Structure formats: structure tokens, C-alpha cells
Amino acid sequence: MKLLKPSWVSHNGKPIFSVDIHPDGTKFATGGQGEDSGKVMIWNMAPVLREEDEKNESIPKMLCQMDNHLACVNCVRWSNNGLYLASGGDDKLVMVWRRAAFIGPSTVFGSSSKLANVEQWRCVTILRNHTGDVMDVAWSPHDVWLASCSVDNTIVIWNARKFPEMVTCLRGHTGLVKGLTWDPVGKYIASQADDHSLKVWRTMDWQMEANITKPFNECGGTTHVLRLSWSPDGQYLVSAHAMNNSGPTAQIVERDGWKTNMDFVGHRKAVTVVKFNPKIFKKKQKNGSSPKPSCPYCCCAVGSKDRSLSVWLTSLKRPLVVIHDLFDKSIMDISWTLTGLGIPTERGGEEQHSLQHLREESGHHQHRGSALHHHHRNPEMLKYQQERQNSAQATAGPGSAGPESSAPKLNSVMNGESLEDIRKNLLKKQVETRTADGRRRITPLCIAQLDTGDFSPALFNSVPILPSGCSMSNHLIPQISSDSCPGPASSLGLRPGSDLLLSSAAAGGLKGLEDKDGVKSTLLLTSASKIEPMKALDSRFTERSKATPGITAVITSISGLVPLERPKDGVSVLKDAKAKDDSSSDSEDKMATINKNLSFSKRKPDLLMDGAEVVEKRRKGRPRKDKISAPMAQPFTQVTPPAEREPSRVTAAPAPVAVLRLPTPKTQKSFSLQVSMEPSVFLEVENEVSLVAGSKLSQLRCSRDGRDWNTLLPSSVVTAAGSSDVLAVACEDRMLSVFSSCGRRLLPAIQLGTTVSALHCAAHFVMALTAGAALSVWDVQRQKALVKNESLRNILSGVDITVSQSLLTQQGVPVIGLSNGKSFCFSSSLETWTLIADKGDSLVQCADFRSCLPSHDAPVSSGPLAVMQGRNLNAGRLASRLSSTPHHLQQSMTLAFLENQLAAALTLQSAQEYRYWLLIYARFLVNEGSEFRLRELCKELLGPVHKSAATSWEPTTLGLRKRELLREVLPVIGENLRFQRLFTEYQDQLELLRNK
Amino acid sequence: MAKVQVLNVAVLDNPSPFGNPFQFEITFECMEDLPEDLEWKIIYVGSAESEEYDQVLDSVLVGPVPAGRHMFVFQADAPNTGLIPESDAVGVTVALITCTYRGQEFIRIGYYVNNEYTDPELRENPPLKPDYTQLQRNILASNPRVTRFHINWEGLADKMEDNENVDPSPNIGGMLPPSCITGKMPPLGLMPDNSMDCM
After folding, report:
1. Molecular function (GO) terms listed (chain B) (predicted)?
2. What is the value of pTM for the model shown?
3. Does B163 touch chain A (CB under 8 A)?
């Protein structure tokens, strides 16, 4: 068994009254006293569980703190599904919290605590009904109800599905109700109060089922809480503070008839809290022991005012373990993790809690099945945040080194305007009006909206912004200190030393002067002479002055205050002196506390002021753009034309195959296009130029390097295309004509099945995509078909998928880009469609091969593959920088991605791209030390050294000589000493071959 | 619960000549839409000796305030030198930013302000009558002193109820400081509650 008292779990020395571990075990909440309010804090569990995480400064310990309770928080409880946290306090309120989208870390301005919230928890509802301090809250099984009990002698049941609706108020206790527990099947709720009774209430009709008083008759004195607990099997209810023969006990109440025959004895003072482990345990069968059926048992922790904790098993007569003097004060609350291995307990006195690892006894636990709701989101998110912040820091790093460029150029853009820009002009731009009575009224600029709705992991683009020009102010990165902070703070020209001095002198204490005796500062002169007035000034910080009249009540109370002023001063001076040191040392951090998530606000359109204009423009702009782009791009749609659909319904077509139909270009009276730049070739088409014997003729004119030719066609030309070698035109009569660059007809007119949808020419290849979604490619030079009327049905399978792009490579490989982000090419050798690019491919997003890019900015691959993958590749490289994928996973993803690229380049017959990716691939293999693949690659490139008839090895690929490629790859291999053998092996063989 | 949290105050144009206007860029977060405006004030403490010399440099209403993070720049003219006691013109004093909602002050941010001659000659031998044109104002921006007060954020109806139900919490045995009473001025002399957060 291990005990751990994480000293960092503290409410700044203020008492903690409650603790609860999140059902998923990744975090826990504490409730208690705050500075001048109640406080709820949410902590990360990982640093408790693992020492290395505790030492790791990048793992946040505190996740969120909420100061919203007006007075001490007595109880915090997670809902069973883990989505909500309920807290009840001396302010008579129950607050229900829910995690909200993270809008950047925030700290309490001016607070000495450097802890920034890394999670955002928002109060979603405040439950008001109690007229006294709320002492305990409890969620029913399945989170149907939330119960709260109070010193107003009542228990209130809230409808947890419809906050803040109240279901009922249970009255009957005649004393302060200090503990609640639900029966695990939700049939009862039990409460314990100072009126020496434990009452069990039915949830069916909310009437009292049992009133147990006997074990409590002797009870004298009071405890702060009486947290009772129901066993997970529902059989036993164990009370807090009961008495048996004038000894304090925890009374066991049996469900069966509410009998009170047993108790847990041994504590020297009143039992304050009982908590069952949520699991039911089963003894492991020991080898060789008799196979007697083992009885399941429960495990229960009992905490007492005597500062000791005992742990009991229902199968044992004596406690499993008793731990004395855990804390200085009474134990206030206990929580088990759902895995049943640890219990932090809280003491009332001060901070700290302990954790027990009950490894030996964990046995075999059975799940009760009720509310084991694990969500792995949170740890993942935390990790993600950390990595993000680390990477952001890394990018900001070089900037903050130089004093000029120190404002980190984070891509903090708010509708095209960075927050820095906004801040610069805020004074000029902010809307200021006069009210009817002539007062100034400023409309503040909304820089982030709070979500009140559902949680959305809006982290993806969250770049924290630092308004004061400082680098990351997060506690996660504590090493960024005041020195690296430009901005207003350093413009003061104060060294940290003088800063400190002034503040301590100002604190008015003689104490401050003693400490800092002899510390030089220009400010010392003035401030030293001002010690007395400074002391007087100090009180101004804290007292509402006459200058802020406020309401009349305040004025009267101020006058009533005057006699009290002196003692107050004394207090504040003492406190000042104590706190000065840390408050001044971290003051820089304090000033840099605001970070925001702009991406979040970006999504919300309701920005005020100039932000709003931009948004408006965008809104208007988008549809217009769509309108423009629509006719241009002519998104090919998979349409079943009504004319065809009708008959097919009647005749009950043999197969329910959707008829693919791609849109076709409209016939225009005339049009012209440039088909080639080098040499420059222009095409001009004029339809219906002349009528000869009743038939309309169309004219095709072509100008190539200043030389013109023209020809006539018997039908209107729908579309035309050309390359430097060939020209193709498709006519309304579904005829495709191909001409040489000089106007000579190369092929007889080709009859297409349906009208043409898209026509492309490249080198001596012509590609036609028809409205019937059939694709053909011809090699004009060799007068052969490469692709024969191949249907797009296989790749257009899916709802609403359309052809968004089509092209023909110089090698005559047709490529079709679809609206779902996938691109296919038809491989004539494989006679099938092959996928060459997928924008939704997660491999693309995550592959990280930046380190393997050619160092000199070599012509980045430009070819059909790059065209189809487009900017996507760049996005992938960026995303990889932010990605939090573990290294080995990313390595495999990158490898897979690179191999995909190679295969795609190969099938596209894009030699340059193949070579480009091959070199990156080789470099990646070298960097990652993948010898198997590397060897295979070399072997393939080298081929057989000795000629034999049986070999099928091709010496070239895509016209590249493989051995030349190997010659390029080898130096890369040589860079890694690990592959020295491989390098020399192939180097020698290449030499051998060359000499042959 | 406090509906408005001040997240940051950046002191702009600092240090600056004494006659320049004060400029504070204030960022705050609001938990829910506020039906009424916030009122912000800048108070210049003319003399440490007495509140009589306090000057409200300006007050502005800020609104509407929907839930979210907001920022604005509060600019106010420099203090009227005629109202500052001559003996207090040079040296350290205090500037306060306060914010009230429904007439109740819920936050007070204080800064030390050092007024000094930039000219070494004048610094050595300050004129009897302060020469404000030569004075430089330096706000110690890195060390704000923030005090928060509990106020009643809701309407007046609640306030009555809250005042009635002041519970001295006798059972806690002095472990807890008595809670701050909403909407009413707490007895300052006894209230550790009402101290500065940074303390």
C-alpha cells in the first residue's frame, strides 16, 4: 500500500471540504474555501498517479478553478456520466458545472496564483431553494436526479434532466441535514442529520421509508458533515457518526428490514464520512486451495474526526487497514477511483490529501455496470494542448530572442485582422456614444464568445494570443520570464529589482525596507520619503472610496467604517508584507494573462465593430463567389434525366442501375481558346457561318506561331481542345475530329456514344469524357485506343459524387477528380481505376516528411500528382507540425503515405514526380533506420548483376534508368553510418556494373 | 457569483508626460448577458492624506455586454492640477480603476503612480511650485492591486432575501471566516475577505 499526500493540491492554505474523483479517473475536484469566496478546483489525476507526471512541468496539475460560490463549498460531486459537476456551499446555492469549449487559458487578474485554467468549466445552472448552507449533494444512479441537503433541515431533489426544475423537497428532519446517499438501484435515498436520525426515503413517492434513530440516540457533539454511504450491492447502508456503548461507530443498516445489528467500531472520535468503493470484489482462487465458492464482498473507507482512516471489507471482521494521523484536522470527505485502487481523502484543516493504493487487496472486481462512462477525450485533449503550446512556444522562440521581433508572430487573425492590429486601433475604432444624460458610453469589442451550448472541441485552431505582446504566459511554460517580455512592462524601464523594491516599500512596511536595505534604485529616494503616505495609500486599494458613490447604502456604511479603519490597516500591512515578494516577482506574468482563442471567435459571426464589417463582407461574398464559380466549373452531376427515368419506370429496367449523366457544355455561337503556350496555338470556332445546300457549316480557325489555317465542319462545334501536337473538336452530332497542328485531319471522325462532356489533349493523346460517363483515350500517333469507353460508374458510386476535374497527362494517363476529394486515374496496364489522391486521407494529414525534403529548394514536384493533390500536401505538412500523434504511429503513417505517393506517381507515369518521391522515401527510410525496406529498394533498383534469360527485371521505370536512381539514392544512404555496409555493398556492385 | 471577471488591464502610453490622458485597455469576461451597463471610473488620488483630494478623472458606461470576452480602451484626461496639493504633486500616489454594476462596486484595480521630473536638475532641486509640464507620470503597470467585492448581480428582490439569511455558521468552529454579505458593505476591519487578491 502506498500513501501519497500531494502537497500541490491546495486551496492556497484554505480548508478543503470535499473531494470527488471523476468517473473516468483522469481528474478530480475539490471544494472548499477560497480567498474571499468558495472555491471549486479541478485537478489532473495523472500527476497523482505517476511521479514522472508530477515532475513534468508541462503536465498541468490544476485544470480549472472556479471562484463563483460566494461562500465556502461543502461538497463537490461528479455526475455518474462525468459530464457535470455539482457543488453546494454555504451560499445556499447548488451550482452545476459543465465543461465548455476552451477559449484560451485564463488566470485571475492580479492574483498571485500563476495557475491558469487549462480547462473551461462553466456554471450551467444555479439551483436556489435552500435557505441555509448546502452540506452535501448526490447524483442519483443514471443521473436522473440530483439531491442536495442543507442546514435548513431539508433535502431537495432536482430534476437533473431539466435543471433548475425541482422535483420535491423532503421535509422531516428536525436538524441540520449533513449527508446524502442514493441506493445504487435508485429505489431509495438516505439522509443523515444532526437530529440523531438517519432517514430512508422512497424515490417512488418521495415518502419516508424508514426512520432510524436508535444508534444515534447517544450522539453528542457535532461533526461538520455526516456523509453516509450505500454499498454497491445495495445490501448495506453505513451511517456516519453513530454511538454504541458510548463509543463512536459507523452503523451498518441492512436493507433487509433496516436492521441495525452491526457496526464498524474503533474510531476514537465521531465518524464524519463513510464511502464504499464502487466496485464489488471477489477473492481470487488461490492455487491448491479448496474450490469453495467465494463470496463477493465490498470495501468501505471510514474517516473520522480523530484524523484517522479505516478501510473495511464486508468479508472481514476487522479493518483491513487503519491509518492514523493522516491529517491535522478531521477527515471531511473520501473518494474512490472507479478502478477501485486509490482513495484520496480530504481533511478539513488545510489542503492536501492522501492517496492509498490498495494494490494487494484489489482482487477481482466486478463491474456494477451502472455508470461506467469512460471518455478518453480529456487526457487526449490535455496532451494535445500541451503539444500545441509547446510548438507555439517553439515558433515564438526565435522571435522572443531578439528584442525587436519579440512580439510573437502568432497567426492570430481575427477576420483577417490580428488582435495586435485591433489593439492598436482599439481606441480609435471603438464605438463611443453619449447617453441621453450626456454620459460617455463605450461599446466593448467582443473578442471571444462564450459558448453556452454544447461542448465542442474547438481546440483545433486555438492559437493563444498575448495582448500585452508577451510570449506565452501560461504556467505550462514557466521558463518564459519577465526578461523575455517586451510590451508595456519593460517599457517602464524598471529592472525587476527596482520593481520589487518599490512594491515592498510601497507596502509601507518598515519590514520591506529592512529586507531590501541597501538595494539601489532610483525610485528608492522618492518612495522612502513617502513611506508614511504610502501606507495611507495602501488602504485606497481596498476600500471603496467616496469617489465611487455607488448606492446610498454604501455611503452610509462608509461613514460607519471610519472607526474601524485603524485595525484594518494593521492587518493589511502584515498581509502586504507577506505577499509582496511573490506578487511582485510574478507580476510580469500577471500582466500577460490573457490569451484567447481566435479561431473560436472567428467562427462566430457576431463580432462587434470592424470585425462585423468583415464578416458581413464575407457573408455576402461567399454566395456570389459560388454563383460565379458554378457556371465556370460546371460541376458534373450524376443526374438521371427525367426523360429517361420515366420510361425506365414503366418498362421496369432490367437492372436498377442509375444512369450516369455528366453535364455537357452548351453550344455557343463562337468561342476561342488558347490550347498551347509554347508554341502558342490559338483556336477560334465560329458555328453556323454559312449555309450550303441547307446544311450549316462551322468554321475552325487555328493560329500557330503566326501561321493560320482553317477548316470547316458539318456540325456545330461544342468544345475543342488541343496540345502542341494535336487539336480535337467535338461537335453536336457526337462526332470527334482530330487534326494535326497544321490542320491536317489525323483520324477519321470518331462517333461518340453520347455528347461530349469534357475533352482534353496532351502531347499526342486525346481524351474524351462523354455525358454518359464513359472515358476514352486515344494515342493519335500510333492510332490506337489506350482507354476504351471505360465507365466511371465504379468511381462515381455514392450519393452526390460528381466529377470536379479531369485532365490528361503528357503520358496519356487520364485523371478524374471527384467532388469527394478523391482523384483516380485509369491505368491502362492494370485496366482499372486507381486511386491517386484523397484529400480526406488521414495519412496525408499526418505524414511528416519535412526532414526528408531536398535541402536545396529543388523544383518541388510539379506534375499531375501535385496538381491533383494540390495544396493538400502543404496542409499535411502543416498539420503534422501540430499533430500530437505518437512518434511510432506518425512514422508508420508517413511511411505509408510516401509509398502511396510512389505508387501513384508510378501509375500516373509521372517520372519526375516518381523520382522526387523516391528520393524523399529513401531519405525517410534512412532517417528512420528501416533497413529491410531500404535493402529491398536498392535490390529492385540494382536488378540482377549478371544477365540471365529468366529475369523479368526492367532496367528502366517511367523512362528513368533504375541504376541511375540507385546512384542518386546511395549518397543518401551513406549519410547514416548505420547503413555503411549497405552503402558499400551496392556502391561496389554499381562500380562493377559500370566497368563491365 | 461574480458575472464579470477582469482578465487584464494594459496600461497604454506609459510612462508619459503628466498632462497626457490616462489610457487603460481593459479586457474582461462576462459569464452571461448583462441587462445593464457596467460603469467604469478612473480615480486619481491627489493626496495620500485625505480622500478629499481624490479626483474622478472620468466615468464611462460600457455596454451592451453579452456573454463573452470583451475589451475596450478607457481614456480619461489627466488630473486637474489645481486640485492637487502642491506638496503631493511629486512622488508616489495611486490611480484607481473601479467598476460598478447596478451601482455596486465589484472590482477595484489600483496602481502606484510615480510622478517625477525627468530633468536631473529639477529632480535635485524641485521647484517649490510644481512644474507640471516637466513632470513625467509613470504607472507601475506590472503591479496592479486588485480587490474584488461581492455584490448582488441580480435585481433588488434577491438582495433583501440575502440580507435576511445571514448565517453565522456556528458549527464550523471558527474555521471559516464569516461569509461576505451580498449587497451590503462588509465591516472592513474584521474582514479578511475584503483583502486584496494578490495579498
Report:
1. histone binding
2. 0.45
3. no
